[in-house]
Design a protein that fits this description.
The protein has 3 helices and 5 strands. With 98 residues, it is an alpha+beta fold. It has one domain. It has a 5-stranded antiparallel beta sheet. Strand 2 and strand 3 form a beta hairpin. The longest helix has 11 residues.
């Protein structure tokens, strides 16, 4: 039986969030991985060195996940992603067309 192991950043995000398998959003320009929990309406931001914080969107000026992703794009940029509202294939097509 095959098993999949999560990376250290994902394990940290799981510890912070309620949802057992949070959605991987992407990696920002500073190397922090972002994970979305739709139950809590929160994002776990986990740096490469393991520092982590949970950002509950209701406690921020951002009303939607899309707004959070745009904020991250403007502040840190995205190295990978964000993967929301579409598909990986769509992301690749947009990258090739850019």
């Amino acid at each position: 039986m095959a098993t999949t192991q999560s990376n250290p950043q994902e394990r940290t995000a799981r510890e912070l969030l309620t949802q057992g398998r949070p959605l991987f959003l992407g990696v920002d320009g500073e190397g922090a991985a972002h994970y979305w929990d739709s139950y809590e309406f929160a994002v776990a931001v986990v740096s490469a060195n393991g520092d982590a914080e949970k950002v509950v969107l209701a406690e921020t000026p951002f009303e939607t996940l899309s707004e959070w992703c745009e904020y991250t794009r403007s502040e840190r940029g995205w190295d990978i992603g964000p993967h929301i509202g579409g598909s990986l294939v769509g992301d690749l097509v947009r990258a090739v067309e850019a």
